Amino acid sequence: MTQPCIITIAVTGSVPKKEDNPAVPVTVSEQIESTHEAFEAGAALAHLHVRDDQQRPSSDPEKFAALQEGVRKHCPGMIIQLSTGGRGRAPEERGGMLYLRPEMASLATGSVNFPNIIYENHPDLVHDLAQKMLDYDIKPEIEVFDLAMLYTAHQMAEAGMLRKPVHVQFVFGLKNALPARREILEFEVAQLNKLMPDATWTAAGIGRSQLEMNRWTLEMGGHCRTGLEDNVRYDKSRLAASNAELVARLAGLCAEYGRHPATPEEARQILSLPAQTAVA
Ligand code: MG
């Protein structure tokens, strides 16, 4: 019996543009199609951002609504996670689509430097987003870009500010934040297991660390993330052809580590989410 690995597809993100890789989906219809292909290749969870007409990050709730509706329709059972990430979006707008009640949303529990900006998450904003997620019954994915964010998440969970069991994503490879080093991942996972033994975890490697991080995570028993948001290349020799191509490679790797891509049903069970059927 192999162990399931939830594959998250990070479809679009805030940064990569068509100029970086023409396969980056930026319109809602492109995003739905790309998510559907990734779903068929083995992804069980979609991490979603939306863009405006100039490909800039957008907070438009109507776009989020259309994207969520399309993914629900075409990818039965897939878990939808909307991003409350900050790049290029006003703080007060970042939770503006949570009333759509996605099953999950991302939540960074602290601030950190990114390559060219401060990724600013004021404690009041973190609490406001967490409260909205409680109000709308949304499970957060805690984004840990730096170690302190893990301890803050633990404190918030103890204070009843986060739904339990907590799900954490460790992020590596962004310039000025944590480098992709296995010792750091091992330390973070050990701390997580000590603080919140019932928590689940994923790790994401940005840029060229994506595949290496996938391999470490498969070996260590975590869940995996891939996608054009984090990495527009397949390898040194060429750009990725699609989100589905990155998912298919990761799905193929699972067997090497005694794992298999989790079905949506398995992913829901692992994340303590309701076994939901498709919305008509
Ligand atoms: Mg994101």
Secondary structure elements and pairings:
Blueprint: E1 3-5, E2 7-10, H1 28-41, E3 45-48, E4 50-51, E5 57-58, H2 61-74, E6 79-82, E7 104-108, E8 112-113, E9 118-119, H3 123-135, E10 139-144, H4 148-158, E11 167-172, H5 182-195, E12 200-205, H6 210-220, E13 223-226, E14 233-235, E15 238-239, H7 243-253, E16 259-261, H8 264-270
Parallel strand pairs: 1-16, 2-3, 2-13, 3-6, 6-7, 7-10, 10-11, 11-12, 12-13
Antiparallel strand pairs: 4-5, 8-9, 14-15
Helix pairs in contact: 1-2, 1-7
The structure holds magnesium ion (MG).
What features would you describe in this structure?
This protein has a single domain, classed as TIM Barrel. The N and C termini lie far apart (34 Å). Helix content is 34%, strand content 21%. It is of the alpha/beta class and 280 residues long. The chain has helices at residues 28-41, 61-74, 123-135, 148-158, 182-195, 210-220, 243-253, 264-270; strands at residues 3-5, 7-10, 45-48, 50-51, 57-58, 79-82, 104-108, 112-113, 118-119, 139-144, 167-172, 200-205, 223-226, 233-235, 238-239, 259-261. It is globular and about 45 Å long. It contains eight helices and 16 strands. Strand 8 and strand 9 (118-119) form a beta hairpin. Helix 1 packs parallel to helix 2 and helix 1 (28-41) runs parallel beside helix 7. The structure holds magnesium ion (MG). Residues 10, 13, 47, 49, 83, 85, 229 line the site of magnesium ion (MG).
